[in-house]
Amino acid sequence: MHPLITYLNAQLPAMTELLTRIVSLESFSADKAGVDDVARLIAQELRSLNAEVTIFPQTTTGDHVLGVFNRGAGSPILMLLHMDTVHPRGSFAARYKIADGKMYGPGVFDMKASHVIALYAVQALQALGQMPRREIRTLFTSDEEIGSFTSEALIIEQARGAQLVMVMEPALADGRLKSSRRGVGNFTVVARGRASHAGGGHERGINAIQEMAHHILAIHALTDYQRGIATTVSEIQGGIAHNVVPDRCEIHVDARANTQADADWLTRQIYSLRPVLPGAQLEVSGKFERPPMECNAERLAIFERMKQIVAPILTLEHGPSGAGSDAAFTAPIAPTMDGLGAVGDGLHAADEHILLSSLVERAAMNALILQAW
Length: 373
Ligand SMILES: [Zn+2]
Prior knowledge:
373 residues, alpha+beta, Alpha-Beta Plaits, 2 domains, 25% strand, elongated, binds zinc ion, hydrolase, Bact_exopeptidase_dim_dom
């Protein structure tokens, strides 16, 4: 058996216990106190591994935590993690359990198991005297699930100059790495008309909701599953009273694309919407906040090298992810691979869980990559 696997197998009870502690600290993105509790625990764990720890205090979201090993040595690797989850406080007690070799709990798969995997990858290398002489940055952010508005600049700063960015998001089914990510765009469309009485002044009104109805259908018609394009009008507001022709309607558009070319095309289509009703006005704002990460030749080369490095312990595969991640920010500036976290299922769902055995396997995998890259 590989020495990393032997060491980590012995650590599995401690890894399970640490993961339980992290999952019990519920950390919904909007719950700053909850995310900060996780940040404090992570900072403490990093310090116990002799990392140099920096806290980046935030006002509206949880604080970000950076742990650096071997500062200034060799060419740096960045491990990228997030501490927030999509689960509001109060779901831990009902959902947490260990059964059939799996741990269930809010955020356990996305991505608290990854915290344990990253920490124990370093611990295993230290314990076996195999820590590479290179800078290892571990960045734990607080707002990935809501678009990384406060962490984007820090992520880009830490990824710059890195020889590899290991995005510790959950793996695909069967442990496949995520070699491409869909881009995520957020757009707002506002239609303006003219208010009037719905009875007596009907002909003088310009109905903003009626105007928007045309655009809702036009936006949905852009969806093309074969091209990997999906558009969703996900929120709508308009109107003030039963008997008033509405003068304002606003929608939110969630847009997804697999390639930068399609993201640009979709952006152009949304910005080229024009008013249909005489006298109506239309305003469009927004953009692709997370550009697509494409599975290009560079990504395939990174995958092939990782596959070779980890061959002594497992056979690695890769595939596409339909969701976005912070890999979108690092892929344009540094070699990036995603999906290095745990194996499990039920992402963002009530039955979210991981395979406990994957804590050992994935920590060993990440340790090998840190060492050999
Ligand atoms: Zn995630």
